[in-house]
Design a protein that fits this description.
This protein is mainly alpha-helical and 89 residues long.
Length: 89
Amino acid sequence: MTAHDVLRRLTPLIRTHTEGLPPDPAALTAETRLEQDLRMDSMAIVHVLEDIEDTFDVVIPDERLAGVYSVGDLVDIVRTSAGSAGRAA
């Protein structure tokens, strides 16, 4: 799955947990910062991560959560988690 595909699928998940996000889906880019640009608090970010796990059927390791600051970080988490899904038994 490409980064663009992931971003397209992440956009509605992020929108669910933000207020006042511009209606243009293109307004969300990899550089968009979760706290500063989208005014998400830590609880909203946790809810987005839970939605990501459900939507993409992945498990996000707790150690990955500390470095989540931007939409691009979420895309990276999805891509690396999806790439390793099913490898651990």
